[in-house]
Amino acid sequence: MTSTEIIGKYQIESKLSYDTLELKKNGTYEYESRGDSCWMWSDFSGTWELKNDELTLFHNYSYQEETTEYIEKLDKFSRDYVIFEVTDKSGKPLSEFEVKYSISYNKSQIKKTDKNGIIKFDKYDIVSGGNENVGIQIKYLTNGNETSQSTTVNGNSDRIILRINSKPKTIDKKEKYLFSYKNGILKSVDFRYVEEISTYKKL
């Protein structure tokens, strides 16, 4: 059961957000999440259903597992070198895996892991208060295809564990978000895109 009364576009009543929700006649919706930081903006859509005073938004989507994971650690006593450990997703060491460890264009170290998946890199002199990041460049296979990746880690780290997921899976997610709709007033009840219960006004 759906109601024609609820169909239309709504905007959140918040000083920190400009979110909008459009409920369409064909049973679909579009939500634009517009918080105070543009880095957190997102758009999504799906289908909606109204039963009694409860509005449910259904959101089905897919995403791929991460292919790399970096774990950075500081030991109790710091050293002048960093231990780099490379494993697969299950923790099995990867030998002959090449890693480029660099602080600038002309300052880099390129080494391959030993049979235990270990490399030792000399640490760079990190200027206090300056940029403490060190560049990492790697190449690996993702579902049989070669992939290149560049990232940064903290140059003060004593140990870095890199886990490679060479066969990432596609994850299917089904979520639903709950709102209340009473006397023409729309409120979020269980909705992870807002920090607290929020009211939406019809435009």
Would you kindly provide a written description of the structure presented here, covering whatever features stand out?
The protein has 203 residues and is mainly beta. The chain contains no helices and 16 strands. The protein has an eight-stranded antiparallel barrel. Strands 6-13-7-10 form a four-stranded mixed beta sheet, with no helix packed on it. Strand 8 (98-104) and strand 9 form a beta hairpin. The two termini are 23 Å apart. The model has no long low-confidence stretch (mean pLDDT 91).
- Measured distance between first and last alpha carbons: 23 Å
Derived from helix and strand composition plus strand pairing, the structural class reads mainly beta
Helical content stands at under 10%
Mean pLDDT: 91
Contiguous low-pLDDT stretches (5 residues minimum) are: none
Taking all Cα atoms into account, the compactness measure Rg is: 25 Å
Strand order of the largest sheet: 1-2-3-4-5-14-15-16
Shape: elongated
Strand content: over 45%
Order of helices and strands: EEEEEEEEEEEEEEEE
Largest beta-sheet details: 8 strands, antiparallel, barrel
Q: Helix segment count?
A: 0
Could you give a short description of this structure?
This protein is 0% helix and 58% strand.
Helix-strand blueprint:
Elements: E1 8-12, E2 20-23, E3 28-33, E4 42-51, E5 54-64, E6 68-73, E7 81-88, E8 98-104, E9 107-112, E10 118-122, E11 133-142, E12 145-154, E13 159-164, E14 170-182, E15 185-190, E16 199-202
Parallel strand pairs: 7-13
Antiparallel strand pairs: 1-2, 1-16, 2-3, 3-4, 4-5, 5-14, 6-13, 7-10, 8-9, 8-11, 11-12, 14-15, 15-16
